[in-house]
Amino acid sequence: MDELIRAEAATAERDRVVTPPVVAALVEAGATRMLAPASLGGGEMDLPSWLVAVEDLARADGSTGWTAMTTSATSALAWYLPADGAAEVFGSPASVVAGTAAPAGRAVAADGGYRVTGRWGWGSAVPLCTWVAGGAVTPDGPRFVLLPRSAVTVHDTWDAAGLRATASHEWEVSGEFVPFRRAVWPASAEVDAPLARFPFIAFLALGVAAVGLGIAARAVEEAAALAVVKTPQYTSTVLAAQASAQIDLAIAEARLSAARAFLHAETAARWADAVAGAPVGAGDRARLRLACSHAAAEAASVTRLAFDLGGGSAVFADSPLQRCLRDAHVAAQHGLVSRRLFETYGAVRLGVAVDTSRL
């Protein structure tokens, strides 16, 4: 699948959506359902393994990795829904589900459920979906509501600098009925499974960070490949033989490896807690989110270093380095890996009062 994703990446970027052959390959491989329960045909992956899978897909192409990340992360909602709702939405092996977690919808009570109206932004992969998830404020509190794709209107608003093929358009529904079986709030659901015990918002942040790391790894790969064949203008030796290039590549590799190690170590520790059913304090949750934000920031910085190493060759549309540069920086702008999380961790570490409800 790696070769297919790489071959289709330029077309996907041009069309601003992952191409049909790649979508079909992702669905067939189970990449859109990696976190759904095995009882529903999902991958039921542990989060450390999920990080590796997302990184690998993002290394092939950032937008494709993001699409797999957001759909497979949303597939985790199957753990929280009532059994009949989970089977309805996730029972088909061809189901693809994504959406927007922000509670931009408003719901009113209806017989057996809610009538939902709203317009959401950042709807990555929604045009590819069979079902769409959106955060909504209901009379019973916040909920994720699951809507059939046929009920959703997508507005073509995603014309962004990077991650262009994620199709992260705005979308809306008006007065759509959602039965109770398709409405859930993970934070209040008690489910006896490791993934369900892991903070829902935290593993979304893990996915964003993993995409960034995969993109940065691709950038380093491309810079190294270019260095062995490129002789820069006004020099007589290939780039690979020049000390400055050797040092920059080594620094990029070290920083990327360090950020990845920090993220994976924290994820493994918190996953072990989830498996054991052990309580996790605010300090540990803050440190996990610190690792996510650090990984995203380092990924963007390392990608810039690789792009700079490529020199003039990196600026052309056919160079993966320029796409990596744009993709990594857009990924790092996501609110879940915001630099504000550095402040949150610092406050928790120093015993200063701070809101930790979204950790």
UniProtKB/TrEMBL annotation:
Residues of the Acyl-CoA dehydrogenase/oxidase N-terminal domain: 3-74
Instruction: Give every Acyl-CoA dehydrogenase C-terminal domain span.
Output: 206-338
Positions the record marks as coiled coil are: none
Q: Which UniProt keywords apply?
A: Oxidoreductase
Specify the domain of life of the species encoding this protein: Bacteria
For the keyword Oxidoreductase, the answer is: yes
Read off the InterPro entries from this record: Acyl-CoA_DH_C, Acyl-CoA_Oxase/DH_mid-dom_sf, AcylCo_DH-like_C, AcylCoA_DH/ox_N, AcylCoA_DH/ox_N_sf, AcylCoA_DH/oxidase_NM_dom_sf
Name this polypeptide is given = Acyl-CoA dehydrogenase family protein
From the broadest rank down, the organism's phylogenetic lineage runs: Bacteria, Bacillati, Actinomycetota, Actinomycetes, Pseudonocardiales
